[in-house]
Sequence to fold (112 residues):
Amino acid sequence: MKKIEAIIKPFKLDDVRQALSDIGIQGMTITEVKGYGRQKGHKEIYRGAEYLVDFMPKIKLEIVVPTELTEKVIDTVRSAANTGKIGDGKIFVMSLEQIVRVRTGERDKDAI
Fold:
């Protein structure tokens, strides 16, 4: 089993969610986050004063899938989140040792 974490632009969330739903992904966790990479941030003007916005708003998706679906999910997220511009995000893949559903005690693939 794999845990896929994807950092994407907020306005691409609906596109990514729909694309994942289309390939049969039933659940994910979504968190609003802030960060920066090469994008660095930007300047804004508020009440006549210029200030630097260091951290850009992003969305973090966490998706747990059987190992055999990993590449399909990566390709789906990448194509749905891609704008071709700096700051499109990153995808991280981690191995999971064990999953347990709290309510029923089901484990591993049955708990996804």
User: Anything to note?
Assistant: The chain has a mean pLDDT of 91. The longest strand covers residues 56-65. Residues 2-111 form a domain with the Alpha-Beta Plaits fold (CATH 3.30.70.120).
